[in-house]
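User: Here's a structure from my thesis project, written as structure tokens. My advisor, Dr. K., wants to see whether a designed sequence matches the one we expressed. Can you design one independently, without my sequence as a hint?
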């Protein structure tokens, strides 16, 4: 093996067979890391409580979890109006209802148990004259409260992670 030292990082040239042996050595570590990453959004330690308080009084709490990229996309897609270009036969996004999109993200990130108690509360729907949980999120939370919750959702979903942090891990 040919080695060269640069900036305290040792570069090693390996044959294809040595590379395969190295991969086999770390294969269980890689699998463990992949499974841990996949379970990240459902693990208890990644669930965060949110308190909605006004004038120093906590009105209610709910817990949120990280969202996958697919969940972000579904929320955006459901709240985007598309128009079809007849000449090309392709749909193009015309307008995204950002208010409803933001409410949908909060609704989606709320863990199932709390979503059922808080956002899917039929008595609250009747009292506030809304048709579903996403409408209730919009009706109850103030713009700044939604902003703070969305910032936390983005953070726990990995959107605040910098490339430097990824490289360290």
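Assistant: Designed independently from the structure alone:
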């Amino acid at each position: 093996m040919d080695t060269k030292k640069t900036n305290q990082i040792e570069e090693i040239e390996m044959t294809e067979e040595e590379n395969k042996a190295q991969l086999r050595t770390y294969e269980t570590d890689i699998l463990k890391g992949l499974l841990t990453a996949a379970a990240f959004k459902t693990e208890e330690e990644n669930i965060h409580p949110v308190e909605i308080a006004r004038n120093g009084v906590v009105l209610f709490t709910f817990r949120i979890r990280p969202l996958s990229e697919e969940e972000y996309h579904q929320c955006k897609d459901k709240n985007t109006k598309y128009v079809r270009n007849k000449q090309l036969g392709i749909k193009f996004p015309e307008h995204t209802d950002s208010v409803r999109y933001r409410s949908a993200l909060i609704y989606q990130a709320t863990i199932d148990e709390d979503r059922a108690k808080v956002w899917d509360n039929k008595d609250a729907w009747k009292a506030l004259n809304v048709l579903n949980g996403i409408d209730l999120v919009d009706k109850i939370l103030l713009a700044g409260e939604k902003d703070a919750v969305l910032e936390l959702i983005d953070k726990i979903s990995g959107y605040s992670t910098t490339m430097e942090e990824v490289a360290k891990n």
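When you compare it with your expressed construct, this may help: The radius of gyration is 23 Å.
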